[in-house]
Write a structure and sequence with these properties.
This protein is an alpha/beta fold and about 350 residues long. It has 13 helices and eleven strands.
């Protein structure tokens, strides 16, 4: 099936379920159906959080709004879902920062490697609406806005048979990265060879040796079988990039004030639940990686990686001066919550061993 036909099929199928949700497209609509799409499984922290949102809206706005959550790309790819949210064909979806960067260059700042000194700094920045609101609202003209952020953990390198303990270890390695200019430049600065490809192709590329490794969080390592072939996971923590829940701009603008306030409370609940579930999911993924996949976790000195990527910060800020005040505000949080070198080594699976 070619991509064009696939997109048409998704839209046709969506139209069918929309009409079905309106009681056969006939009669009086007693409740507004709210459709939310994402690309994760029903066991993922994102789905668990959106289900909590679904229940919250049902409790508070029963008879007025009915929330329906569609996991596992049932409404199409992330790109498809963002486009459908733009037009109002669906109401909300979870989008990656890399996709949103194509709609607003302001999102580019979150893709910067080593932007945050620690996870504590990262969380405080993302919770500071004075920092995030200008970015979250920068896509209004595109037809959607961000309503909350979701923790996607830290992105780290994992490789087939060569541990990454310093940037020079990446020399000559073909590493899969997201299809983002920032990520490609990051790999160049670190000495590796960036190989952009769709996430669904990564396992086969690793297994066949087309690539030497990838970079992602712990759940990508385990849930997608990457740990079956990659035996070293290096906590260089080069990125802490949020996923974003976006909503249709017209829907949000036209929503009655009382309902909008309850939805805002629901968005805060999504954030809280997802972050708690993320912590549990990471612990489970690490335990599985060690016990079942025999993955070795490595905790390298981070400073050489940080220094190698510093020119990328300068280039992005020069290319988009609007980001400078936001960048400076982030540095204040970095000073307040500095990196605890090898902090995650405290959980170096001692409890597992």
């Amino acid at each position: 099936m070619n991509r064009g036909f696939s997109k048409s099929f998704v839209r046709l199928w969506l139209l069918i379920i929309i009409c079905g949700g309106l009681w056969g497209c006939s009669g009086k609509q007693e409740a507004r159906i709210i459709r939310i799409g994402h690309n994760q499984s029903v066991n993922h922290p994102i789905h668990i959080a959106l289900t909590a949102f679904q229940n919250y809206i049902h409790e508070r706005l029963a008879g007025r709004y009915i929330v329906q959550v569609y996991p596992s790309e049932l409404l199409g790819s992330q790109t498809d879902m963002v486009q459908l949210t733009q037009t109002g064909a669906i109401d909300f979806c979870v989008a990656s920062n890399a996709i949103l960067e194509t709609f607003s260059k302001d999102y580019e700042i979150f893709n910067l490697p080593y932007l945050f000194a620690s996870q504590e700094a990262y969380h405080h920045v993302m919770d500071d609406r004075q920092i995030t609101d200008p970015i979250f609202g920068s896509t209004e003209k595109a037809g959607f806005i961000a309503v909350t952020w979701l923790d996607a953990g830290t992105r780290n390198f994992y490789t087939l048979d060569t541990p990454v303990e310093q940037p020079s270890d990446l020399k000559g390695m073909k590493i899969r990265v997201q299809q983002s200019p920032t990520n490609i430049e990051m790999m160049r600065l670190l000495g590796g060879s960036a190989t952009p490809m769709g996430f669904g192709d990564v396992y086969t590329a690793l297994q066949s040796g087309i690539i030497d490794g990838a970079e992602n969080n712990e759940m990508a390592l385990t849930d997608n079988g990457h740990g079956d072939v990659c035996k070293f996971y290096s906590y260089d923590m080069h990125q802490m990039v949020p996923d974003i829940l976006i909503g249709n701009q017209v829907l949000m603008e036209e929503m009655p004030k009382e309902a909008r306030e309850i939805f805002e409370e629901g968005f805060a609940l999504v954030n809280q639940v997802e972050r708690k579930e993320w912590v549990k999911a990471v612990e489970q993924a690490k335990e599985r990686a060690v016990r079942e996949q025999q993955v070795e976790f490595i905790y390298p000195e981070q400073r050489p990686f940080v220094e190698a990527c510093r020119p990328l910060h300068e280039r992005v800020l020069k290319g988009n001066p609007r980001l400078k005040p936001i960048y400076d505000a982030i540095q204040k949080y970095n000073e307040a919550y500095p990196s605890l070198e090898k902090a995650c080594s405290e959980s170096k699976l001692a409890e597992i061993e």
